[in-house]
Amino acid sequence: MIRLTVDGRPVTVDDGATLLDAVRASGSWVPALCAGASLPTGGGCRLCAVRLVDQARPMPACRTAAAPRMVVRTDGDALHRARAQVVRLLLADHPAPCRPPGDPRGECELEALARRLRLPLSQPPATSPSVPIPSVPIPSVPIPSVPIPSVPIPFPPDTSHPALHFHPAACVECGRCIRACGDIQGHHVIGWHGAGITRTLAFSGQKNLADSDCVACGQCLAACPTGALLPALAPVPGMTAIDTICPYCGVGCGITCHVAPERDGHGGETRGRIHAVTSQPGQPANRGRLCVKGRFGLDFVTRPERLTQPLMRRPDAPKPCGPEGFEAVPWDTALERVATTLLDIAQRHGGHAVGGLGSAKCTNEDNYLFQKWLRAGLFSPNVDHCARLCHSSSVAALGAMLGSGAGTNPNTDFLLADAIFLIGTNTLETHPVIATFIRQAHAAGASLVVADPRRIGLAHEATVHLQHRPGSDPWLVAGLAREILNADLADNAFIAAHTEGFEAYRAALLALDMAEVGRVTGVPRAAIRHAAHHLGGAKNLLTAWGMGLTQHVAGTINCAAVAGLALLTGNLGRPGAGVNPLRGQNNVQGASDMGVLPNVLPGYQPVTDSATRARFGAAWGRPLPETPGLTVVEMLRAAADGDLRAMHIMGENPALSDPDLEHVHAGLTRLEFLAVQDVFFTQTCAWADVILPAASVLERAGSVTSTERRVQRTRPVLPPPGAARADGDILAWLLERAQVGGAGSDGNGDAAAVMAEMARLTPLYRGLSARRLERESVCWPCPAPDHPGTPILHAGGPLRGRARFVVPLLTPPAETPDATYPFILTTGRLLEHYQTGTLSRRSAVLDELVPGPWATAHPDTLSQAGVTDGATARISTRRGEMAITLRADPEALPGVIFVPNHFAEAPVNRLIHDQLDPEAKIPEYKCVAAALSGETSGR
Amino acid sequence: MDTFADIRRTPLLTALHQAHARRREISPEARRRLAAEYRLSAAQLDDFISFFPAFSARPEGTFRVCTGPACRLAQGADGPRHLARQLATPGASAAFCLGHCDRAPAVIPAADAEIPTPAPPDTRWLEHYGPDAPRQRLDALLSDLAAAGLCGMGGGGFPAYKKLAALRADPAPDKVLIANADEGEPGTFKDRWLLDHHPGTVLTGLYLACRITGARHALIYLRHEYAAAEPRLVAALHAMEQAGLLRGIGAAADTAHPLLPSIAIVRAGGPYICGEETALIASLEGRRGLPAPGPPYPVDAGLFGHPTLVHNVETLYYLARIGRHGPAWYRGDGNGRRHFSASGPVRRPGIYELPAHSSARQVLEAAGGLVDNRGVAAFIPGGGSSGLLPATALDVPLTATALAPWGAGPGTGGMVFLPRGACVVDMAAHLAEFLAAESCGQCDPCRLGTRHQARALDALCRGTSQNTPLDPAPLADTAIALRQLSICGLGRFAPTVVETLLRHFSTEVAAHGRGECAAGVCPTAAGARNTGDGA
To answer: What is the ipTM of this complex?
Structure first.
């Protein structure tokens, strides 16, 4: 604590505080234009200058550290005149008002400053004649008029970008956008060009915004004090601000949606529209940061293609068919049909003949009710969701080794790590906000080791990039562990105190043939050794991974190996140290937590445990299935085999997302009955018998749980379109119809009541309630209402007691290239799109930024296959083939073809085999043998 | 793995000069390559490149025309119009003072001037101060410098021996010495002259400074427009290397004695502000040359965090001379010596070494007086930001104390004499424009305040002030803002030229306010002023 005096008043500030902090704490006021909230210090505007008693010149308060016994004055005639003149000079060329009315950021900060200092907003233009004065006296009396000649800024507005516009005339050159873009987001797209008089803001070196490397995160927009940076979509006056959680990825960003009603063209009001999205202030998961999807990609919610009324398949319509094969029916008709058919099939053939897919896009409450409907209503053990396809292997490995399958650290812990290991995660595109924390840590000195077969964004910036061949992860990670052992960097004290099975693990590593590691991975041994030194030498190592690691037949083995590195180096249970599978969807963690998994009830309580079953059964008034059910891919296989007769799918799109789509489609076709509950007519809807229009997560109250296990409140920002209903209300209707007891049994899907029942039955969530979440977000486990939550798992030692080392198994991918299929096909995501594109491809901005698919491969690979850069080519595997535009990527590994998986017109998943990881049942999307040819006539 | 913040790595500035030398521009391919090599985004690289006028595209056949004070005066009253005509020729671009004021009117590239081959450094004498020199010998040298009272000659005037002693006391292994040869103050060319005529002595000073302080890394930050001096410096460095005095030229060689310094030549990128030591260091680190006044000061944490001393060329020259001739030689009758640059229409423009407390009249006499015995209308006492003084100040000693009552300072000793018939308002407007163009832009008071001054004086010259006459009140407020709030000396001293103009030349200002320029230099209809492109 530092004690000092500001304007005669004693002030106490924290160590490390600046004089600006001290001035603000004292109740005094100094203007500040270049200091933006949560931005690194600028110091250019000089408006916050204060006087120190023992200093001749004023000091900028924002750049001066507070020190004990300082005596600070914010007033004084010279200082006031100097500040006022700088503001006048800034106003001389300023087009006030520079922001449109209704801008959620409020009034332009310069204009607000001028008002507070009582300075006129606009200057007389230079061309307008003022009263001629015949001679020039040198008066000693100050003249109030300020004829600072105004020169129009010669740069025209840049309106090239679909999301962001730049109006140079309103720019005050405070540099806040540069710091937001570079220091906060790490993109470094905005910079200065030139110096002095001719200096301008420039994007990627004087490109227009659309041609620059801008990724449209909008951080600059939030930082800009004026109307220089504006959203392309103009705000409207009178918007309402509603806080909720971003519906896209698993980072859990707090957003504020600014909505206003609209006229519908017939004189009536529509349900309104989201005109702007800002980051929710004070939100711990994202600290004011957002990405392009969250800030500019939520307009899908008001697209006219939203499902607005229940639909039933016409008796004569084939499977699959488009919307024309369906007719609108009243809710009761549709629901009655769903309930009757599913209950009837379950009764006649047993619960195992029915299956359900819950959704990582729906709230915890909806998912809770969904598995309750399947288990208690239909007595079906077959309930799963897409977590199966992304991180089931992480959950299996971490659960077995540590006692919990969840990630161990908060998002912001990357800032505390001194080494970061990323493997199989293109974080910059899949979890853009987490990537900002990684970049910030790296810029501050943390080493960054990236292992990825692709030269992804963060690989360019990394301390070491290990560009290993797809599917060689087991060798790579074992090699790293071996080099850590060799360099004597293992944390023996941690191993002795907190682990078991080390000797066998060590023995296996010592038997490892490093030459084979080099051969299989294609990574030089020196690079592996170098990376191992960074990983082993760090005080705090934070590891994160994504689907590049998990989506293999060796997925569980891979995850166990990476977690093994953390154990080997003693990095668990501390701030900045731990293992973090980065979850992909806004509520994929929550859907798993809610027991939308075939083997566990809510809170990961095994279905095989009779006491657990009894507890839930008592609450629901029904017996529950005693054995684990089928997983996603298994359900669709069973459907194809005729063993599974009916499905209820809520907010998932297996017809595009699952591997080996030909088989999936066969399974869907063979189902006797399919109910789909969704917001759009997805590819899966084409096989549905009944389609139930659902409210999106932006229209639904409830809660979602992010990758850092943070449970957060979602609020409806708009009413649902037409007759669409909240998933919870749909499920409650079915539960009431099936006479299941407990929450929802009255036909009301109210989130608070569902949360209350779930918390009562689920120890991990016991301390949570709708009321508490209204106030704060909480990381589980949270066993009691007065428990603060658990941001860091395993802080008191591994939950399992002793963490278990797993002996590394060198398991190759299911398919390896051969003469017919000489290349490796791998899939992944793009920043601008999301999963099967159901949401992101219906956003105007995102669709304009990336309108269609393309694949990339090394130029040598293209020429080997006879494909020209930019031409359409045919990719084929043992499952089928697909035409897509190929682009050359000189940094790609030769022989590897990358295809993004968002695009229905390039449904790459039809090419993926359905070999599964034996333990987690996750498919191998990341490594498939493929052929490439320039002919497109084969289709 | 890669340390980019490393003193042993080629500065980005140098890499850009190499790329520019090959193509006369920084090509898109070079940008891509350098961005990858130095791990910068396209924006970060452009942010750096665009700061330095040296990297503008300069196709074959283009040349730069100096618009500086001496060159404005070179054609008499027609000077500014002559410049305008010259700038209208194809391939011409305007530059602020190129530091060739003795050859006014100057263009670059220029025909090679005949300069006698300089004497090589006296390496036999320097061996006394080599790595085996006893500590006492270096101590004695330092005491000589203190006895001489050697102060910085770049304009700051801080006692040089104190900075040397501070660095000597620092135990850090990698200490850095920088010879600041990025002279840029309009009307000043003494450093160029010293590098042309006495490169060996300057390098001797740099070498001795390294030995006194124990600095193992030294470099000469050479003004971009002084490229002609580079071969002479290289020749002198080779002589020193052959005598076994250096660890290497440029890169550090590990074979030689570890205590020996390596000396590199780094070409500057053009901006005036990079003559300021913290801006200079920033430019060497691959960042925009923005002044960042301490603490920490460069002597504690300078280039890449290493303790660093930056000394002006003339300071190092005198360091060597004092080492050779002793402090008494330097002190003379009390105040030491300095090199005055004399330019304008004097008979013998050039460099004159005189006692530091000489008056402007003594410098003028040394330069042979004005051509045609014209009277002096005004003079610049010490470089572009030192102010404008009337003839009545000709006998004032050129020291800080004596000039303070006149609202001016001794600056760099770069003296420009304006004869009767020249327009002092035009000169002031040019200097105000220079300051506005060379403001780095990082702080608002300087970026906007210098612009305000330049616009106001420009309006006065153009005669547009008939409608909006020069109103001193806002200029006074701008002066307060500049003095109180600017980050560095450029902004803090920027009001001097405007204030000395208003104070000493009120008649001329009033006449211009009526649209009259007695000299006929500031015609209301003579077309655009020559705007320096800052390059």
So the answer is: 0.93
